[in-house]
Amino acid sequence: LSSTQAAQVLLVEIGPGQGELLSLLREARPAWTFVAVEPRVEFRESLTELGFPAVDSIAQLPSIAVQFSVPQRFEEIIFVLDNVLEHICNPVGALREVAGLGQRISARTRILIEVPNEQGLRRRARIQDFLRGTPKPPTFAGHVNLFEEPSLRQVAAQASMRKVEVVRHPIREADQVRYTMRVEHLPGLVH
């Protein structure tokens, strides 16, 4: 996100939950416009209370300009799917829908996707349990898709995404996930 030079930026987080990441991004980039796509009504209500326009589906995004006085055209639109794609039954279709919408409302569209890296899952889970000091299931029960770099690239290619960059973070730093855990202090290494 730091490479974005555009003045008019719309950042749409898909599946933001209670808006922890959106809140952090708004602090870092107060001039940007932020919108949430969240299917769960209780989270949409929380997001609205935090001041984020929130709709329940990607299809509703075009109407958000009227509902929430959001500009209809941006220099750049950034979609964020932070640990969401693995919960979507048709990830190719979802990415096509997102990219198509982005192309209609912006000169430049970027889609940032974070998914759990499932490569070497069982081995990594044992190591990370040791580092964390507590065990946890190796993957979340709600995951309907598991991705490794080749499968994520394949989904992106099938969705006709032109430029794909994969960045690997095998073990996250505590500061990168503190907002999801809602605790003040975390040990140095978690996953």
Give the strand tally: 7
Radius of gyration, in angstroms, nearest whole number: 17 Å
Mean pLDDT: 76
Shape: globular
**Helix/strand order, N-terminal first:** EHEHEHEHEHHEHE
Quick one: biggest sheet? 5 strands, parallel
The number of helical elements comes to 7
Strand order of the largest sheet: 3-2-1-4-5
Helix percentage range: 25-40%
Helix/sheet category: alpha/beta
Report low-confidence residues grouped into runs of 5 or more.
Answer: 173-191
**Percent of residues in beta strands:** 15-25%
Written overview of the protein:
The protein is an alpha/beta fold and 191 residues long. Helix content is 36%, strand content 18%. The strands form two sheets. A five-stranded parallel sheet has the order 3-2-1-4-5. Strands 6-7 form a two-stranded antiparallel sheet. Strand 1, helix 1 (20-28) and strand 2 form a beta-alpha-beta unit. The protein is globular, with a radius of gyration of 17 Å. The two termini are 22 Å apart.
